Amino acid sequence: MIPHLVSPVVLPAVAAALMMLLARENLFAQRVLSLASAAGLIGLALSFATHALPRAEALGNWPAPFGIVLVADGLSVMMLALVAVLAGIVLLHVLSNGVDKLGDSFHPLFQFLLMGLNGAFLTGDAFTLFVFFEVLLIASYGLVVHGGGAERLGAGVRYVVTNLVGSTLFLFGLGVVYATTGTLNLADLSTKVATLPAGDFALIRVAAVMLLMVFAVKAALVPFQVWLPGTYAAAPATVAAMFAVMTKVGAYAALRFGTLVFPEGAPAMGTLYADLLLPAGLVTLIVGSVGMLGASGINRMAAYAAITSTGTVFVALSAFTPEAISAGLYYLVHSTLAVAALFLLADLVARKGGRSGPVAVLFFAVAIAVAAMPPLSGFLGKLLILQARWDQAALIWPVVLATSLIGLLGLARLGSELFWKGANPEPPQTTTLTAPVLLLAVLLGMTVFAAPVYDLTTQIANALHDPAAYLTAVEALK
Question: Mean pLDDT for the chain?
Fold first, then answer.
């Protein structure tokens, strides 16, 4: 039996409701429900991956394009699997470090975060994407301020204000799109934008830029990255580890709209998205790597590493060719897991005995992953990106290589300060090492099985470049 596409959205929502209604004072029950939800999401992602894709479902009795449509294709299922695996590993770390003991609502908020992420990846409607963005905003704000404190509250307020501005811009953009095309269904928009009269070209281009600005805010692209370092550094490190995938929601949305709704070469669009995203990605890469070089602590180092990874991903995706998209998706998965591992390591370092020999070895391995050095998958990902962006080699190659070196120097400096000057011989609890070790194991698996993983991202990229199957799946619901 094939699960309904709404299952990854309903499962965490039901788990959160059960926690609030029946287990509000029972931490053990909340933990069991959270782990069960994460395990269920992994199972659902695997189930979707083993059936024919793309697949579309209409919610309720309203046919497309008037009703809410959910669509699972290779890209959305890949992102579902990434979220589920990361959530499961982060929850294991939560159980070992007890961060969920600092408040009653950690696990319900965590589940609502998963609900928002999964909904954003599955929705086939632009307005529903806005709704799931708001679910993400509310849940992530609660997680940022979890445990209290003036620093977290201040970071949370700045985070909310910035994202509310983005949300307002999102509504304006959607309003212009609807006024121009009469629809917000992504598949329907693909057809309508391609056949717009020349008199509407300027209006739809304005809407496209407004939406791209929203996605840039979510992804922390320069100049909209200012909210991320303070927010991620102030949040509990375990929470920030889950937030490693949050910036990739912006990358996902930009890729989805840039290949389906506003494809390069369309009469109304030309190369608008490519022209904007490449310089933004390069500048973001530079800003992030310089931030890593000057970062004053491991939490802030991880925050700037998240910015750097975003820049690298957008440098690849901005070409909107199958080869570049495939390389960008491979690196997207790697960088999400690597940055999450660095945040979990930050939690270990902050704890008693966290600067011991085992943690130092673990930091060395994670630093290799974050800096994209051989032999781990990040090196392969950057190599694939450089190969795919040969068209702009004179511009892209020096920036990518130089920023890789700068980031590596920053990690080396931080490692020296933490584990040489600030060494602590007392070992940490061995159970706390489990989660980052598991993340490294996944990265090692991506390295060993790089060929099949890259083949998979290539299939996804080809389907994005030619969305006929996606459009046919939605068309069948009319």
Answer: 90
